[in-house]
């Protein structure tokens, strides 16, 4: 346990508790967001990505690490708020009701299986990790590992079969239309890496060769897109494409997917590609514009920390610690605002784009074995 990193996570958690707005036994936060290119200040929604469920999960794990009762109390209040707003929240993991129930299962140690299955109905319009089938598979398999419930596994398989049905199959691999774009996306959050990862997780749980093939073909598609000159994969959300280095769209998320799937399959090419992606991530340390988990320094550093755990790579550990030390020097010790993941706004409290995620990273760095990565759902 690294006391300096735990102390940083504790200070961030204390600020979140201080800023919580209470009504009876529930609490919430407000934050800046951009709406039609205008900055507005709003109450948070309930979801895992940018709502009260995500903050609750960070505070709960912080309470487990510190024993400070205020973190437990605030986590429970935030979770009650999230559960009270689950109707209409959507069905995805990071952006929907399933993520709220997943956080509830993590915090309370139990869950309503009927409610989980109700939130995990397949939807052809949502296929990706953030809002669709790939993320649902991760959550269902995580809950299945707790209980051994066949109903959860069978529902995960249904989502896998949906992904098989929706795959666009060509000579260069399989891809999916996850956004309304002319070209199908690479990457973890909304592209082929996230779907390939979900396929391999399903194969590991079921030994169904269809899902092993889905994983291989998804990564094959991305292999044909790879730029040797840039050591990176393109983000086709813009034209011409960009080559970002982050968890959601870019080398960091692709490294994470390859590392996890290599640990399941021991396919040599996945290890080779993960090392290529990690080299790109390490070279980019210190160049991000923010410290968010989704598309900032701490998300990239979390991937490097995972690589340390899987590959026992001290260079990745040093790079992750450099991110942590730079953040302490530039922001925490100077009492300066942390740059969060919503461009043009002040500090925000959320998990994937704000302070809760920054705190989660420092908590994870303090004791990686006790704090699982939130960037690999269900694992």
Describe the structure.
- The structure is a single chain.
- The chain has 379 residues and is mainly alpha-helical.
- The protein contains 14 helices and six strands.
- It has helices spanning 3-19, 52-66, 69-84, 97-108, 113-119, 133-147, 150-166, 192-206, 209-225, 251-265, 268-283, 297-311, 314-332, 355-366; strands at 21-23, 26-28, 30-35, 38-43, 168-170, 173-175.
- The protein has a two-stranded antiparallel ribbon.
- β1 and β2 form a beta hairpin.
- The longest helix is centred in the C-terminal third of the chain and has 19 residues, at 314-332.
- The chain is globular, with a radius of gyration of 19 Å.
- The two termini are 21 Å apart.
- The relative contact order is 0.12.
- The mean pLDDT is 96.
Tag the structure with descriptive keywords.
379 residues, mainly alpha, two-stranded antiparallel sheet
Quantity of strands, as a count: 6
Helix content: 40-55%
Span between termini: 21 Å
Alpha-beta content class: mainly alpha
Order of strands side by side in the largest beta sheet?
A: 1-2
Tell me what portion of residues adopts beta-strand conformation: 5-15%
The DSSP helix count reads 14
* Mean pLDDT over all positions: 96
Q: Could you describe the largest sheet, including whether it forms a barrel?
A: 2 strands, antiparallel
Report the uncertain regions: none
Assembly category = single chain
